[in-house]
From TrEMBL:
Keywords: 4Fe-4S, Heme, Iron, Iron-sulfur, Metal-binding, Oxidoreductase. This is Precorrin-3B synthase. It comes from Diaphorobacter ruginosibacter. The keyword Ribonucleoprotein does not apply. InterPro entries: Cbl_synth_CobG-like, NIR_SIR_4Fe-4S, NiRdtase/SiRdtase_haem-b_fer, Nit/Sulf_reduc_fer-like_dom_sf, NO2/SO3_Rdtase_4Fe4S_sf. One of its GO terms (molecular function) is metal ion binding.
Amino acid sequence: MPKDTSSPTSTPPPLIQGWCPGAWQPMASGDGLVVRVRPRLGRLSAKQALLLADLAERFGTGLLELTSRANVQLRGVSPSQHPTVLQALADSGLLDADARQERLRNLIVDPLWHADDQVWKLAHALQEALVRTENLDALPAKFGFSISSGRHAGLAQVAADVRLVRTEASTWLIHPEGHDRALAAPHRAHATASALALARWCATQALARRERGEHPGRLSTLLRGWHAAHREWPALAVPAGVRWVPMPGGAGEIPAPGWVPGLGLLIGAPLGRVSAPALARLAHEQPNALRVTPWRMLLAESITPQAAESAGLWDARHWISSPADARLRVSACTGAPGCSQALGPTQSLALHLAGQVPPHAHLHVSGCAKGCARQQAATITLRAQGQGSGTSPIFEVISNGSARGVAEAAWDERALRDNPGLLFEEN
């Protein structure tokens, strides 16, 4: 699929005309525009996956990024071709014609859902209800939900304002992030209504704060402030029988690549980056849907071992198929020169150091202090600080912290590459 060199259209396609500012605004980066695609309820058909591969090859850098929000990003899109890309996405069902709907359907669905666990049905019901519900326009930016089967802890570190968790008793817990209390709902309809009640309450509070000239805040902050002022939780318009209960604790690891009984094959991508030809090859051999995960992996639904081999999924250059692969223990943002805010390159360094990261540890390499690719703490975080006295970039070392943490030391990239084992020996 050669890069498209034809002249772009001089006017935006009809779908794009008249959209309000901010709807599907791309992010400018060092290698062009970044277009973020949010597949509906985290699933891509084979046809949609082929389209994304084609768009990345023709209009982007030829790479697609799997993000920690279960999105897919195309990089390097030129401003003149951006409307053409958006129109193609809309035609394939990957973009809403309504800007409000696109903003509100910020749901992360447990990629390991089964047909009998109600996760998919609840997610679909909530997505439809969000579009129909009024008085949500004042919600804070990026307000979102996660819906978990409760079988694993893979969504525990994925940011969400409201978490809906299925329990072993087949009930639901609707959990505002950052609190030790949750709403207990006996079935799916009550869970959907309770999640919407929290969203409406948050929107009302955020609107009042804006009218006072204050920052709208997040749901967790608003609930904490309400409880401090009133010594009780707010009275929400929830169905009868729904009540506040203690939120049980729990910990665990995210699922690892491999066969998932009854579902298919969970396959990772090095640093979450998939080449367009590799994705196209998979889509050609995979007639069923692909589920996009927040772990920078894809789940190939019901794929057979023969199809997986034909799709090249055992090719380590493009995919991670083993839970022992050291590249699962590293992460990195785009870094320089792809990101204009990055103070140094990141990805090649992360892959170079991957083999030195012990099991159950994690290394994150960030181009700046924003930590876009990983918000939570890592065993070691390397934060780029620009060039040193020579030509080698300097990286600050943060132990058990994020890119925003306090550094304990600084190494230049050449020293890190020459002595890769020292970084974790000292920690």
